[in-house]
Task: inverse folding
């Protein structure tokens, strides 16, 4: 297992996971919401998404080996019968975004350099395939830097055009909502803008100094930087074009100007370099589903390839009774297995002494190449034959993004937070109890957002 990640490289990868092509739609949300509501929604989305990441990180520390953290391992000890469903939600989300990136590549580059969309989609394989064959997320840190530089150019274009562009200053709404209907249709743009949990576990597993202190730094830095990018771009884009702001801010600029052509090229480059960041968790979730099917329906040999010990031991009957008392009689505490106890806190774990006999979910080279090849082949075939699937992508975002950002972290936190203290022979503290109920609130919030977003997508 590669453990070369640092706080800086991990922050870069998480920021690039969060900040993508959706940045260009934020100014349109500002146009509909008005500045006060749009900024408020952005800050709320930043807080809820950041809290979801924090809850996932805390839950990972209940594992025997925190470097084995994933949605699959957490599901296996909390809601084992739903593991396949949870990973399927992750898979659909990542697959849909990856496919949309390939379609966008086919739409962007022909307008800049000519040629057919099919040829440009095929040409993208020269960059996409080598990057998709990298096993570790931290290996993508340099391409993430390049992608962020491409986005920075677009951001600078938006800001500098406001100050130095030859545009009449439009009327803008600072406090009032300018478009009540638009508020509904753009709600999901802001709420889903901060989705980044698909790569959090890879970051945790590959982080060299795998402590909650460092993980919290990565989350706080990433959410703060992403929120700043969204708010600044949304604000200055809306201040420049007012009620004429389009759903893709780039379309507001004169496409004949060289600086705008460079911005369009940078957008294509950013999308191209973002693909591997979403393909990485897509492959992991596909492998998790294969592994689940093997464990439940495979041969005896396949079923014997278990994931090994996942949680820590609670041998004291008093602690076990206290666990049931504190978590509530309705809580299923059967997920607390009795395995040989090892140091739990990442600050106390010596990586050389962690049981590394297997990965939490095995991904041998043969299966790695098979899953990679099949996924890429299907994505490229679809990208060359599907012109647009906006409705499907919107529904995927409403369900998949909500599940992995809010609902699942909340469900994990509700069930796992509190066991951590008992595993160290301690009682559940006040803050732990607060985070347990905060997790429950986050999960309920996710369900409300999902239902609202699906309704808006289908009927508004």
Result:
């Amino acid at each position: 297992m590669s453990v070369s990640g640092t706080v800086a490289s991990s922050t870069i990868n998480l920021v690039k996971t969060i900040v993508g092509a959706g940045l260009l739609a934020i100014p349109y949300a500002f146009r509909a919401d008005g500045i006060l509501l749009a900024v408020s929604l952005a800050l709320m989305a930043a807080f809820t998404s950041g809290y979801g990441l924090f809850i996932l990180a805390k839950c990972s520390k209940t594992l025997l080996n925190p470097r084995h953290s994933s949605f699959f391992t957490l599901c296996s000890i909390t809601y084992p019968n739903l593991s396949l469903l949870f990973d399927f939600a992750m898979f659909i989300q990542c697959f849909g975004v990856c496919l949309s990136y390939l379609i966008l590549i086919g739409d962007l580059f022909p307008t800049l350099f000519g040629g057919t969309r099919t040829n440009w989609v095929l040409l993208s394989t020269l960059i996409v395939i080598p990057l998709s064959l990298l096993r570790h997320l931290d290996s993508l840190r340099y391409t993430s830097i390049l992608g962020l530089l491409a986005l920075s150019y677009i951001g600078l274009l938006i800001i500098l055009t406001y100050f130095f562009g030859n545009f009449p200053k439009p009327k803008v709404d600072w406090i009032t909502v300018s478009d009540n209907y638009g508020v509904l249709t753009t709600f999901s743009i802001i709420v889903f803008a901060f989705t980044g949990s698909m790569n959090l576990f890879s970051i945790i597993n590959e982080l060299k100094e795998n402590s909650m202190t460092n993980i919290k730094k990565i989350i706080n830095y990433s959410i703060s930087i992403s929120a700043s990018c969204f708010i600044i771009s949304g604000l200055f884009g809306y201040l420049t074009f007012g009620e004429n702001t389009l759903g893709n801010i780039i379309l507001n600029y004169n496409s004949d100007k060289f600086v705008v052509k460079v911005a369009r090229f940078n957008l294509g480059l950013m999308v191209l370099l973002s693909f591997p960041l979403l393909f990485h968790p897509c492959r992991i979730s596909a492998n998790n589903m294969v592994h689940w099917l093997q464990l439940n329906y495979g041969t005896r040999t396949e079923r014997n390839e278990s994931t090994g010990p996942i949680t820590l031991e609670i041998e004291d009957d008093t602690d076990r009774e206290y666990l049931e008392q504190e978590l509530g009689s309705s809580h299923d505490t059967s997920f607390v297995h009795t395995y040989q106890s090892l140091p739990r806190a990442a600050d106390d774990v010596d990586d050389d002494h962690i049981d590394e006999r297997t990965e939490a979910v095995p991904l041998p080279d043969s299966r790695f190449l098979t899953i990679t090849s099949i996924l890429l082949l299907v994505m490229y075939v679809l990208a060359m034959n599907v012109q647009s699937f906006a409705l499907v992508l919107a529904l995927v975002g409403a369900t998949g993004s909500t599940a992995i950002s809010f609902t699942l972290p909340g469900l994990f936190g509700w069930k796992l937070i509190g066991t951590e203290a008992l595993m160290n022979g301690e009682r559940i503290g006040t803050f732990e109890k607060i985070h347990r109920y905060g997790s429950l609130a986050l999960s309920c919030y996710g369900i409300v957002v999902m239902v609202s977003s699906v309704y808006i997508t289908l009927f508004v």
In short: The mean pLDDT is 83. Residues 258-297 form the longest helix (40 residues). The chain has one domain: 7-459.
